Amino acid sequence: MSDQLLKVTIDNITVEVPNGTTILQAARKIGGDVTPPAMCFYTPLKGSGGKCRTCLVEVSKGSEKDPRPMPKLVASCRTTVMDGMEIKSITSQRVLDARAGVVEFLLLNHPLDCPICDQAGECHLQDLSYEHGKNGTRYEFQRRTFKKRDLGQYIQLHMTRCILCYRCVFTADQVSNKRVHGVLDRGDHAEIATYIEQNLNNDFIGNVIDVCPVGALTDKTFRFKNRVWFTKPMTAHRDCDKCCGEVTLWMRGDEVFRVTARKDEWGEIKTSEKTGNTGWICNDCRFDKKKASDWTIEGLAPIDRHSVIGQGKYKGLKKPEETIEKVLDGRKPRLLMNIHSVSEVNNPEIELSEINGPATSAVFKKNNHE
Amino acid sequence: MGRKLLLEKAHVEGIRYYDVYRREGGYRSVEKALKSMTPDEVTEEVKKSGLRGRGGAGFPTGMKWSFLAKPEGVPRYLVVNADESEPGTFKDRYLMEFIPHILIEGIITSSYALGANSAYIYIRGEYAWIPDILEQAIAEAKNNGWLGKNILGTGYNLEVYVQRGGGAYICGEETALIESLEGKRGNPRIKPPFPAVKGLWDCPTVVNNVETIAAVVPIINNGGDDYAKIGVGRSTGTKLMSACGNINKPGVYEIDMNISVEEFIFSDEYCGGIANGKRLKACIPGGSSVPILPANLLLKTAKGEQRMMHYEGLSDGGFATGSMMGSGGFIVLDEDQCIVKHTYTLARFYRHESCGQCSPCREGTGWMEKILWRLENGQGKLSDIDLLVDIQSKIEGNTICPLGDAAAWPVAAAIRHFRDEFEWHVNNPKECLQRNYGLAHYADPIHVPTPA
Question: DSSP string spanning A204-264?
């Protein structure tokens, strides 16, 4: 029984997954729009998930054996699938309403200081509000603020931006034996903090920056140095005696601006090719090795996420698969207007990463005449 | 005069102490259970009694016990939830303070049924003086051979520990309570797994309210069938109600679940009517989390029948025109009370007590509090009322634990039944600071449509 694949149907698309898979993982197998967003769940972190409530889905049929629907929306990241389960994600108005509600709640006290935030461009909250949020806010009160804190010499804590996903707490639990930071207080005044101003001293503590979905934990060696979308991600490695040494370098020309762990299309740290474990990287690799000569550069890193940094800027871009036809049971969405037929500056044949300098309308015009 | 099961001996001098309690027939249920019944028979008796959880949710206790996983070689635990923090509820406090031995007795019998060798009483931190009373009772019970090793020569061992909480409302939620008991931050766990499978220290655990455990004593003494005869339908037995607010005789009352709400409020045996000759405006019948009802819907259901004081009676009409039994914190409001202010006070409480783990509750409770503050102080807008309804609907059902629902329901119910009072606050921003809306039409008889 345990080796048998279970059939799950998410928004009319059926996949087969092994026993013990969560709804979210099954939906990620399908990909595209049906995959619920997840702000707090992080596959390599044991115990994470269930908190942000953005991944709520409706279970319209419990299983083949017990077809009763579940009365409440469930957190897909923490609910395992049953054989014959039917799930509604974007086909359920209840789910869409709840998701819009959660996005609004998450943005309620968020400063929306994206123009001065280092995370902008690769921020999950940005993506989430872009995809599921509303135009404006109905909140008319002063937003909650916290003081900025230094967590040691490398990490800046900007609690005002935090969405309390607890990922950094789980990370510290997992990479260190003695966690010295956590959540203090409760409710909307809860904060990530060290008890009394303490440095986070651990060779792997820099990974909390990578897991942070927003700009609450940022790399002090990179702060205000550059916009992420101006830097090119390169896959690189080095021999490191502490970690796997497999990283992504964020470069501009020959200059290394930032070093992060390698992430997959869901923003989660990949499994290391060398060790087979989660590819956490050490502080040395992350903060100190900032010369191109420190690294063996393998080539351009693919950007799979459809965020700002993936907007057709790099070669090797893997576009997410379109699922809308499958969701609509084979029907094609009605195309009201093809933008390419009326716009001069939107030409998919032009590879933006290959042009010299910034793209201007002239680039497109010249090509049209040829 | 209703039958008393829990508070029968409450006024006997010195009932707090073992000697008197034993003389009055205490610990009979332990003797009966341990000497003449198997654990399954005890559970069966509780099932027969129809006893429902007295903490608020009203889940059948016997069924909860039978869900407990019983893997070999893994200890099981009984945890008594004495973190009674719901505003308006103080029934457990009375039991523990004045008749602590009935709780200890219930714990022994229940632990025996569950096969638990350790039981914990997790008590609210603010009840600072009660742990001493309980610990004294435990010591007395132990000295007389009711606790410890080989109880009554049956080979059954049990230790009872008292653990003080740190003063958080959220720790009354069973999984948050377990986390706190383990020494961690009191955040509710994500379910499943349920405590019956993975509870305290990842072992099967049953968490029951103080009153529920105490009710096991009369059930075993008199038999489950006898207990089930009291009350109506699925609301069996007696229930402790802690009545407070604008009534002549606030206090803890034990009721048979077959009296009417009107009788409970106005009869001299119970609340003795509204204080100072005022008129009844509204009431929260089951602790602050349950929907508030205006006087007319409180005394009569939407069908025009007498509303009864039991689980089904109070929830008659669903959330549209009914409320809930909850934990039995009966809060009565007279005509001088302002519903908007009252709702604001509750919202402030839930905002303060939200654990901050999941986003709808963390952010939504704060938002609702701010809007209600604005309405209460005459700075609100008419659109705020609908905004509140929308916010609460986004919180309700979408959170990890029921605190989100508990924060959402009072706001929803207040607006559902008292919308004109909210609107009056918006339309009369100056006047609302000087006087209250008053009784208005909230006690008028409701129109019951009759078929032609």
Answer: TTTHHHHH-SSTTEEETTTTTT--GGGSEEEEEE---SSS--EEEEEEETTEEEEEEE-B-
Q: pLDDT digit string (tens) for A121-164?
A: 888 998 898 888 888 889 999 998 888 888 888 888 899 999 99
Per-residue model confidence as pLDDT tens digits over A294-307: 999 888 887 765 55
Closest CA to A159 of A211, A125, A120, A109: A109
CA distance A354 to A330: 36
CA gap A36, A100 in Å, rounded? 12
Q: Could you tell me the two tokens for A322?
A: 């379109």
- Domain count for chain A, please give it: 4
Same domain for A214 and A263? no
Number of domains in chain B: 3
A100 alpha carbon, distance to own chain's centre? 18
The answer as to whether A333 is a domain residue is no
Helix-helix angle B359-376:A93-108, to 10 degrees: 70
What domain range includes position B154?
A: 18-229
Block means of pLDDT (10 residues each) for chain B, 452 residues, are 82 91 91 92 92 89 91 92 92 93 94 94 93 94 92 92 91 93 91 89 94 94 90 89 93 91 92 92 92 92 89 88 91 93 94 91 94 93 94 92 92 94 93 90 83 72
Check whether residue B161 and residue B219 sit in a common domain.
yes
On whether residue A306 sits in a domain, the answer given is yes
Chain A CB contacts of B366 under 8 Å are 108-109, 144, 187-188
Residues B280 and B389 in one domain: no
pLDDT tens digits, one per residue of B19-73: 999 999 889 999 999 999 999 999 999 999 999 999 888 899 999 999 998 888 8
- State the helix-helix crossing angle for B382-395 and B403-427, rounded to 10 degrees: 170
Q: Report chain A residues touching chain B, CB-CB < 8 A.
A: 49-54, 56, 72-73, 75, 78, 97-98, 101-102, 104-106, 108-109, 138-139, 141, 144, 163-164, 166, 182-183, 185-190
Tell me, yes or no, whether B222 and B236 share the same domain.
no
Residues sharing a CB contact under 8 Å with residue B412, sequence separation 6 or more, in sequence order:
B291, B319, B389, B392, B393, B396
Task: State whether A98 and A10 are in the same domain.
Answer: yes
- Give the residue from A59, A70, A105, A125 with the most B CB atoms within 10 Å of its CB, the best one to mutate: A105
Both B320 and B366 in one domain: the answer is no
Note whether A239 and A213 are same-domain residues. Answer: no
Closest-approach residue (CA) in chain B for A188:
B362
Q: How many CB atoms sit inside 10 A of residue A226's CB?
A: 15
CATH of the domain at B221: 3.40.50.11540
